[in-house]
């Protein structure tokens, strides 16, 4: 999503103050349960590819495990 132009109502007003445009958030999963979220913001507008999204998802899950987040 473009944080600066998003009209869905999901972007908090404070997020716009960061100046970030491109963003993605993926769930952090443990045993199939969401235990957190992992977000990446970019200064430039961009669309994340399916491969990038899958990579971020896999690493978010690894991070959830390393942090010991419980389902």
Task: Describe this structure as you would to a colleague.
This protein has 71 residues and is α+β, with helices and mostly antiparallel strands. It is built from two helices and two strands; from the N terminus they run αββα. Strands 1-2 form a two-stranded antiparallel sheet. The longest helix is centred in the last third of the chain and has 17 residues.
Number of strands: 2
Which spans have pLDDT < 50 for at least 5 consecutive residues?
none
The tally of helices reads 2
Gross morphology is globular
* Spatial strand order of the main sheet: 1-2
Mean pLDDT: 93
Beta-strand percentage range: 25-35%
Give a short account of the largest sheet: 2 strands, antiparallel
Written as H for each helix and E for each strand, in order along the chain, the element string is HEEH
Derived from helix and strand composition plus strand pairing, the structural class reads alpha+beta
Q: How far is the first residue's CA from the last residue's CA?
A: 28 Å
Helix content: 25-40%
Radius of gyration: 13 Å
Keywords:
single chain, 71 residues, alpha+beta, two-stranded antiparallel ribbon, 2 strands, 30% helix, 27% strand, globular
Give me a quick take on this structure.
By secondary structure, this protein is α+β, with helices and mostly antiparallel strands.
């Amino acid at each position: 999503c473009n944080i600066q132009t998003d009209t869905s109502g999901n972007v908090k007003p404070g997020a716009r103050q960061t100046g970030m445009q491109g963003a993605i958030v993926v769930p952090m999963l443990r045993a199939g349960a969401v235990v957190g979220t992992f977000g990446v913001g970019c200064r430039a507008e961009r669309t994340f590819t399916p491969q990038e999204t899958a990579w971020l998802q896999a690493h978010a899950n690894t991070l959830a495990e390393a942090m010991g987040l419980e389902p």
